[in-house]
């Protein structure tokens, strides 16, 4: 049941600009009424994309130039707010396979890793430059190298960061933690029995 | 000489099962709380992977987000809400998980149910698929929100893969001025440190102001740690914590209590504990706070005016402009007297009995302004019963408030309680994100329950210290 190794992701980029884009914006709460994540993809950023009359607000997710993009570029504190995994699940079902930004909210970052979606941080000037490159030429080919922590945009290379732990998990295919956690049955029992509120006062 | 340890370090260390190859720790989860929104998919994953719930007696469930607060008859009118409810009931029944049942008067918002039943105790590691799980840190536990894949991991193994956080001690010294509440304290902290100031940190709240707070006020503070970016917020347990726990359904019995207390005291931060960071605030600098924007850090004191665009850094300005545009505010504008359409008192932040007692004391003999819809929503069915025993419901209804059934209500848009169009809401909840209260153009002003009450009475944002002066 171990997960696949994720070493490199290639494709096209799409920018979503703005700091502090919260999970209510990534997937509005009304779409959380569901018992599976299957149908969430098309609802990504719904209220940022359409006004109440259904008119397009020209969000990058509706720009035909970015059709089939799989690498999302964002700014600071992306995914803040709720712990809802519905947010990365929606983006994943939209087609996003990796996210690069100035910084990420912690729970969102963890949810992404647990789904095998690497999130990389880069400096502000780097994200500004990459966004400019993509906007100028949306079909430009991009690759994200998880092993060497490099982002390649049409031959131009940028440094990217991800903490060692998640990097290792993605590279060796242990990002889906369940199988690892199931292995240590005896140790789990030992800790449980050492805790007075579990084993009895 | 080695220095002491913080509560975070002590509790974390006691729950470490193993250091994983990734450098993260496998952590035992002492208490797992689930609700209807983020758990059905996790049970689905368990079924797909043919896994069982490993410690069913350590998971507790309650429905809250989707529960209607007026007509609660089953089946719920909204078919998807009914389906989510049925999934929760069936998953609990199939896996021997205790469900706090609406039919038995046990239900409530998940972060209210834990403390109310004595499930939440000092020294525990607590997780729930909801970011406001930080609430439980008020008891001296490490409590944090998780995503659905992690809910699956906890169900399957009672453990999670976690990295260790840094710890920032936030001291609030001195005392609070009259009319300033726990909600104002946490809104002030978030304003000062920013919505991402706490990323990577656990917040330890301390100082005279925190020590003097009741347990319910402490829960309000810890509840909104996540709004400051800190996944974990906690307060060292003391006699107030122990007194609160006495006699609760799942608390240690009176015979066990002394032993439990000894353990709880042992996990408190040492006097000489080392922190990664220490920040000190003065309680008397805090005014009744109101948010004016679309993040919980965009707030001012009630007597303040909305800050000028050029007072922010270049890279903050696009968001500030976006907030001005969305909220219909301009720099320099005063927040006081902003007309409100809806007033909401409730949520896991401020839906507890002490909140309602205080509001009842303030609004008794007054009346909600004609154009305002004002809702008071208890955080649990038990709180509703307790409030009614005290006759608070009558005071609220006479004052023109609607007194509802327990649930998350207008804190988020998953049940029938929603803003319409671009209504302005004065709300005791925790998030003022765009569209948060159910209308994609609805506008939320976060504030304390007393400030919401003042707004309801006046029909616009008002200073509770003046409105309720006599």
How many structural domains does the protein architecture of chain B include? 3
The secondary structure category of chain A is: alpha/beta
Please, what is the average pLDDT of chain A? 95
SSE pattern of chain A: EEHHEHEHEHEEEHHHH
Compute the number of helices of chain B: 17
The CATH superfamily of chain A is known as Aconitase, domain 4
CATH names the topology of chain A as Aconitase, domain 4
C-alpha Rg of chain B, in Å?
A: 21 Å
Give the overall average pLDDT of chain B.
97
Largest sheet of chain A: 4 strands, antiparallel
Mass-distribution shape of chain A? globular
Portion in strands of chain B: 15-25%
- CATH architectural grouping of the largest domain in chain B: 2-Layer Sandwich
The low-pLDDT segments of chain A are none
Q: Strand portion of chain A, in percent?
A: 5-15%
CATH topology of the largest domain in chain B: Aconitase, domain 3
Q: Indicate the CATH class of the largest domain in chain B.
A: Alpha Beta
What's the count of strands of chain A? 8
Number of DSSP strand runs of chain B: 19
Question: What would you note in describing this structure?
Answer:
The complex is a heterodimer of chains A (201) and B (470). Chain A is 33% helix and 14% strand. With 201 residues, chain A is an alpha/beta fold. Chain A has one domain (8-175): Aconitase, domain 4, CATH 3.20.19. Chain A has a four-stranded antiparallel beta sheet, with helices on one face. Chain A has a four-stranded parallel beta sheet with strand order 2-3-4-5. Chain A has helices at residues 23-26, 46-49, 86-94, 106-114, 124-136, 164-171, 178-183, 185-194, 196-199, and strands spanning 8-11, 13-15, 71-73, 98-101, 119-121, 142-145, 150-153, 156-159. Chain A starts with 7 loop residues before the first strand and ends with a helix. In chain A, strand 6 and strand 7 (150-153) form a beta hairpin. Chain B has 470 residues and is α/β, with parallel strands linked by helices. In chain B, 31% of the residues lie in helices and 16% in strands. Chain B has a five-stranded parallel beta sheet with strand order 5-4-3-6-7. A five-stranded parallel beta sheet of chain B has the order 17-16-15-18-19. A four-stranded parallel beta sheet of chain B has the order 11-10-9-12. In chain B, strand 9 (166-173), helix 6 (182-193) and strand 10 form a beta-alpha-beta unit. Chain B is globular and about 55 Å long. At the A-B interface, helix 3, helix 4, helix 6, helix 7 and helix 8 of A face strand 1, helix 2, helix 3, helix 5 and strand 8 of B.
């Amino acid at each position: 049941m171990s997960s696949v190794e994720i070493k490199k992701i290639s494709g096209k980029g799409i920018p979503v600009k703005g700091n502090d884009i919260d999970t209510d914006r990534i997937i509005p709460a009304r779409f959380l009424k569901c018992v599976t994540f299957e149908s969430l993809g098309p609802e990504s950023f719904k209220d940022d994309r359409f006004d109440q009359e259904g008119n397009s607000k020209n969000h990058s997710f509706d720009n035909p130039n970015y059709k089939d993009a799989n690498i999302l570029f964002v700014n600071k504190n992306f995914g803040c707010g709720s712990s809802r995994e519905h947010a990365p699940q929606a983006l994943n079902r939209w087609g996003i396979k990796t996210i690069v930004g100035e910084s990420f909210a912690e729970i969102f970052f963890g949810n992404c890793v647990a789904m095998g979606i690497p999130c990389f941080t880069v400096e502000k000037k780097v994200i500004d430059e990459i966004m400019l490159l993509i906007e100028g030429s949306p079909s430009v080919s991009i690759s994200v190298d998880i092993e060497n922590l490099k982002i390649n945009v049409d031959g131009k290379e940028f440094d990217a960061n991800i903490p060692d732990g998640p990097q290792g998990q993605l590279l060796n295919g242990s990002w889906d933690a369940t199988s690892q956690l199931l292995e240590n049955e005896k140790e789990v029992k030992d800790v449980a029995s050492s805790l007075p509120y579990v084993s009895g006062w | 000489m080695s220095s002491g340890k913080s509560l975070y370090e002590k509790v974390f260390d006691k729950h470490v099962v193993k250091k994983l190859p990734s450098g993260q720790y496998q952590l035992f989860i002492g208490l797992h709380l689930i609700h209807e929104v983020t758990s059905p998919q996790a049970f689905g994953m368990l079924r797909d992977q043919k896994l069982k719930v490993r410690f069913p007696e350590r998971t507790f469930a309650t429905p809250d987000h989707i529960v209607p607060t007026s007509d609660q008859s089953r089946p719920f009118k909204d078919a998807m809400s009914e389906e989510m409810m049925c999934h929760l009931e069936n998953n609990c029944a199939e896996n021997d998980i205790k469900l706090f049942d609406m039919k038995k008067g046990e239900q409530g918002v998940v972060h209210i149910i834990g403390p109310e039943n004595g499930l939440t105790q000092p020294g525990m590691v607590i997780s729930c698929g909801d970011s406001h799980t930080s609430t439980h840190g008020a008891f001296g536990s490490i409590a944090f929100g998780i995503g659905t894949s992690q809910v699956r991991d906890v169900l399957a193994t009672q453990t999670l893969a976690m990295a260790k956080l840094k710890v920032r001690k936030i001291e609030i010294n001195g005392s609070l001025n009259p009319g300033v509440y726990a909600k104002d304290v946490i809104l002030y902290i978030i304003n000062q440190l920013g919505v991402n100031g706490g990323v990577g940190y656990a917040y330890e709240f301390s100082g005279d102001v925190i020590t003097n707070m009741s347990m319910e006020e402490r829960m309000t503070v810890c509840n909104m740690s996540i709004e400051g970016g800190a996944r974990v917020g906690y307060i060292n347990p003391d006699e107030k914590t122990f007194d609160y726990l006495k006699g609760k359904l799942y608390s240690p019995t009176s015979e066990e209590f002394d032993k439990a207390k000894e353990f709880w005291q042992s996990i408190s931060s040492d006097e000489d504990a080392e922190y990664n960071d220490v920040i000190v605030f003065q309680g008397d600098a805090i005014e009744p706070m109101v948010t004016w924007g679309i993040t919980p850090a965009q707030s001012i004191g009630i007597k303040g005016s909305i800050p000028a665009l050029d007072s922010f850094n270049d890279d903050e300005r696009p968001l500030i402009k976006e907030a001005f545009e969305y909220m219909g505010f301009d720099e320099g504008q005063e927040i006081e007297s902003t007309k409100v359409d809806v007033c909401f008192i409730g949520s896991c932040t401020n839906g507890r009995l002490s909140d309602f007692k205080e509001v009842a004391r303030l609004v008794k003999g007054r009346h909600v302004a004609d154009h305002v819809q004002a809702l008071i929503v208890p955080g649990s069915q038990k709180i509703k019963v307790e409030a009614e025993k005290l006759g608070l419901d009558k005071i609220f209804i006479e004052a023109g408030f609607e007194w509802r059934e327990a649930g998350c209500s207008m804190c988020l848009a998953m049940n029938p309680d929603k803003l319409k169009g671009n209504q302005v809401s004065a709300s005791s909840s925790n998030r003022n994100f765009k569209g948060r209260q159910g209308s994609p153009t609805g506008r939320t002003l976060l504030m304390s329950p007393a400030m919401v009450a003042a707004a309801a009475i006046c029909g616009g944002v008002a200073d509770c210290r003046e409105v309720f002066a006599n």
